[in-house]
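TICKET: design request
STATUS: open
ATTACHED STRUCTURE:
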């Protein structure tokens, strides 16, 4: 259900960007396509996840990915490795899956233990199976506007913009954060010449000056810092689209779990000024997994065209 509220003071009709709704739409489409494959006597797409160690957040993310694969009919495999696993052993396992024609997508859950070179591991994954979209080949193709695997979080945001038909052409967009996983690819996608691009994009980061005034000029703001409540009402103009990528556990004794999940946006105070805003939880996080599943189906198709 799409939730709406109206701010009569600023005359801004605010709409929640419901990640659950959009993700479900994406998954329903993928489920139907997978059922068609199976009905035609073909195998389902196969995603392999590799988890090193027992980090709580990583455990949760991987479990959710595996569960979603099962929901839409994909085959999924989970490889668990001890924190002390040698880098060379992890590399051997990746090579095995690189050479396995029954595997379409490989993801290595990050972060990895400090004794393992993350970039070396990312570079090792066969680009045709890089459903996380982190390899230099995927990134290079994306920058050039060629077909590629797009990092799941930015891809999920683009799918959300498309679902809600949010106009972007000619708009001023600000991306706060410059990580290789979210900020940089997001800025590239928003500036590309396509249906939900053509923005004039500014990237802000820890060294940026006058962030408040830059944000006040923005029609679209994507916040990916990992600092709870960073984006304040004073930084947002009326009618702006705000997309919150942050997801941080904050101690909260009123919760049974002992913590609450907070985004990078001061939601209660910012939302009344927005035309559209994504909540945390319930927003971009759900879209990240939907986009990963879409990348996996695309990998299957590319590898089975013959």
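STATUS: resolved
RESOLUTION: sequence designed for all positions
ATTACHED SEQUENCE:
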């Amino acid at each position: 259900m799409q939730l709406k509220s109206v701010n009569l003071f600023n005359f801004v009709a605010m709409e929640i960007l419901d990640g659950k709704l959009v993700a479900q739409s994406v998954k329903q489409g993928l489920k139907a396509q997978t059922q068609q494959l199976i009905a035609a006597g073909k195998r389902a797409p196969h995603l392999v996840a590799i988890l090193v160690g027992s980090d709580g957040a990583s455990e949760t993310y991987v479990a959710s990915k595996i569960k979603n694969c099962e929901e839409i009919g994909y085959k999924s495999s989970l490889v668990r490795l001890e924190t002390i696993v040698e880098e060379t052993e992890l590399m051997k396992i990746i090579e095995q899956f690189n050479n396995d024609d029954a595997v379409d997508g490989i993801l290595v859950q990050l972060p990895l233990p400090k004794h393992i070179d993350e970039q070396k591991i990312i570079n090792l994954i066969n680009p045709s199976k890089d459903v996380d979209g982190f390899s230099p080949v995927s990134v290079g193709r994306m920058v050039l506007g060629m077909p590629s695997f797009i990092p799941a979080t930015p891809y999920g945001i683009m799918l959300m913009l498309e679902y809600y038909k949010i106009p972007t052409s000619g708009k001023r967009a600000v991306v706060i954060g410059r990580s290789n996983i979210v900020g940089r690819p997001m800025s590239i996608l928003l500036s590309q010449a396509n249906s939900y691009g053509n923005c004039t994009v500014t990237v802000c980061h820890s060294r940026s000056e006058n962030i408040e005034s830059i944000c006040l000029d923005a029609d679209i703001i994507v916040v990916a810092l990992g600092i709870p409540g960073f984006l304040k009402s004073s930084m947002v103009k009326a009618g702006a689209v705000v997309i919150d990528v942050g997801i941080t556990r904050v101690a909260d004794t009123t919760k049974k779990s002992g913590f609450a999940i907070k985004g990078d946006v001061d939601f209660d105070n910012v939302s009344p000024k927005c035309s559209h805003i994504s909540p945390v939880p319930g927003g971009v996080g759900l879209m990240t997994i939907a986009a990963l599943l879409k990348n996996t189906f695309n990998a299957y198709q590319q590898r089975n065209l013959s």
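CLOSING REMARK: The first strand starts at residue 4 and ends at 7. The two ends are 41 Å apart (CA to CA).
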